[in-house]
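User: For a benchmark we're assembling, each entry needs the component sequences followed by a predicted structure for the full assembly. Here are entry 17's components. Please fill in the structure.
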Amino acid sequence: MKKLIVLVMTIMMAAGLAAGCGGTKSPEKKEAAPAKVLRVGTEPTFAPFEFQKKDSKDFDGFDMDLIRAVGQKMNMKVEIQNMGFDALIPALNAGNIDVAVAGISITEDRKKAVDFTDAYYESGLIVVVNKNDTSIKGVNDLKDKKIAVQIGTTGAEKAAKVPGAKVTTFNTNAEVFLELKNKGVDAVIIDKPVAAYYLVQGGKDSAKMVGEVMEAESYGMAFKKGNKLAAEANKALAELKKDGTYAKLYKQWFGEEPKAK
Amino acid sequence: MNFNLEIITNAMPLLLAGAGITIEVSALSVGFGLAIGCIISLIRMTSIKPLRWFGNVYVDFIRGTPLLVQIFLVYFALPALIGHRVDAFFAAISACSINSGAYVAEIFRGGIQSIDKGQMEAGRSLGMTWWQTMRFIILPQAFKRIIPPLGNEFIAMLKDSSLVSVIGFEELTRRGQLIIARTYASFEIWLAVALIYLLMTFAVARLVSRLERRYDTSR
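Assistant: Structure for entry 17:
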């Protein structure tokens, strides 16, 4: 038995040494390696920017089409991963993904943690309430009310500033809207295009938008601080804007021309 | 890599408040779970077939589905069924109690079955009914045997209670997530949260061993 153990250990060590030696001897292999992969992180409960297709597990939406176009321009293969919105920036910092594209608003706080590309969409926040609610006409009526938001979003930050409000944070926007429908909260603070899309898709039977658009903010693609891919992505975005692909995608998803920048 | 201690000290009050909620949810859940589990395990031993069947289905379903799914069912699916909203606190405690109840039922069954059959025979031969034998002879002996697995269940529930974060309930894990969403200090906050959980489970484990020693009749 002892001899068998010694034999097995010797074989394992020899195999380990051989693998180790083999690894250092082939730098020329890299050119033959497959195309580089752009690992994208997203949180797919944000239609029409990112959401799961009805009949497949692929992701659809303006953000998804845009990053695929950007990846093509950068000559990289795009792989999209699904995670919680508040997990996106930690995933960037941990190196699990290269870029986060999830309707992320560019804010001063976030700029301290990540590098953003140029803005690719102009947005803002809006308040959504139940259809037959007549007491709330805008964010100023939200004092001491119950608000549902998605964790880590600018909507959550806005709700936190409402005096006396009781804020419940959920992981996904599906749950946020469901909570409103179940009357668990009085209002939701969320990005306007997402609210608009929700209403068009049938939400208007139970909910409505009130008040004005707040906190004009732009979406950007987030990269880890110092990642050189950010500059490449910016170049790709500029090319897409120049050759009309960006305008085409914008019109396809939002039905109107992008605002001139 | 730089470890930011200041973020942890600033976050502590919030995290500890969350820990308080965790203990509250766990204690209530295991408390109700004990009652539910005791009843269910006795039901499973009766000769009334429908009752026994109900007990078995209950245990199989609850043990066969993840607690996360059960929480979603109670909070989001049930309102659709009954037509009006379920309060978050009620949903959290119910889901966790019902879950705990199934496992406690199995713990009780194990404890009761480990008591020598002769005890039941002796009780019956003295003229006691099945229920009287259970209450005065079997259950008191079984109690001592089920203390370790019950303590285990409480410790498990302390950690499983983190799942109620998905219905927005701000217990310890959720508090950690919210702070990270603001500060991006993943490593520091998660480490602090893990340490607090460790402290809680350690305290419970010590309490359980004290309880075991108190009831130990072999010393």
